[in-house]
Design goal:
Helix content of chain B: 10-25%
Radius of gyration of chain A: 14 Å
Largest interface: A-B, 33 and 37 residues
Order of helices and strands of chain A: HEEEHEEE
Distance between the termini of chain B: 84 Å
Distance between the termini of chain A: 33 Å
Structural class of chain A: mainly beta
Strand content of chain B: 15-25%
CATH architecture of chain B: Beta Barrel
Strand content of chain A: 35-45%
CATH class of chain A: Mainly Beta
Helix content of chain A: 10-25%
Number of helices of chain B: 2
Oligomer: heterodimer
Shape of chain B: globular
Strand order of the largest sheet of chain B: 4-3-2-1-9-8-7-6-5
Number of domains of chain B: 1
CATH topology of chain A: OB fold (Dihydrolipoamide Acetyltransferase, E2P)
Strand order of the largest sheet of chain A: 1-2-3-5-4
Structural class of chain B: alpha+beta
Largest sheet of chain B: 9 strands, antiparallel
Number of helices of chain A: 2
Largest sheet of chain A: 5 strands, mixed, barrel
CATH class of chain B: Mainly Beta
Number of strands of chain A: 6
Chain lengths: 126, 272
Amino acid sequence: MKSLCVVLLAALAAVPVLAHHSGAGFGEETKVITGTVKQFQFLNPHSWIQVNVTDETGKVVEWSLEWGSPNELGRQGIRPSTFPEGARVTFKIRPVKSGAPVAAFQAAKFEDGRTIGKWDGDAPRE
Amino acid sequence: MNGTRLATWAALSAVLVLAPGLSYGQSTTLTAFDKLPDWTGLWRMMGPTIFDTATQTGKGGAVTPGVREHPPYADVYEKKYQEHLARRDVSRLPDVITNCGVPVGYPRILNLPDTYEFMVRPDEFYIITENGPNTMRVYTDGRPLPKKEDTWGTYTGVSVGHWEGDTLVWETIGLKGDRDSDSILDRTGLILSDAAHVNTRMRKIDENTLQAVLTIEDSKALTKPWVVTKRFRKQEPGLFMYDYGCAENNRNPVNTATGETLILGSDGKPAK
């Protein structure tokens, strides 16, 4: 079962991100953050990954990373358990223009090297 | 009661009992199940959620500034469309479906992401979209299209169709169009009026491709019929269509005052 999940995750190269609304609020710049998963909201119309990230001053900031619908992601092998609470994960994201800790999910890399999404290169946008 | 009167009474009774059914055309015009084409399985719209890619100018998606389509709009609707495009360019064109609960209507129901089911039955045809979710029904039981004055403008209107071999042909009227400013065809801001009349011809053009050709007439919005083709690719067997409870965790409501789509942070406040 674990190997099946790995195959599915590895195959997940392109995910339609924002079927429910315009992605115009997100900026063009890509940013990389590393943090601890607080919660994976595998809910409609979009899933959200809540991540606690310690900034350069030592302050913990909670980021909200918006991703695709659980339906689309579910058909590609993603499950509510994909981002377990407490997992240490590095994310490639596209933050909103205001500087708030909210972003569009691009890709993720776990400590064991597994990746989800398009880790190399830019992910497709709406 | 003599024999003649009994026969007359029986005949009248039969008419009274059968009349409601007959008035809906549920008669010998139904196409048998085994004569209907196989459109089972899950389908996905091919291409981007731009309603008429054949007339698209500008590169990008529906929310990319500079992208637009070119329906044969009458001047007043071209002006409305240009106003929508200008608002789209500054992210102020609301898409009411983002608030969840508002149907996309027809013909936008043929312009959605995520999966589709096209359910063929002798007396009815259903379009079921995962996104939304949305449902539309087309009666194929032989009933006539209602008169325009017997419709009152809804998101999907009223549709009546029939089979021509392997092609389902249906007419749609009674659409609300832009009457209440809550129905667009895509996120560039395309609209129709409440006078829209759509003829749709849908068939398989190969084993894995369904094609719908829409001929849209609209005496208020268009100067001539607008023909749009939408295609759908069959998905691999065994996939599930899932529940799409849009209001479950909607962190992207529309600010109705500005038309801006908000993105809510973990504190529930807009992030921009």
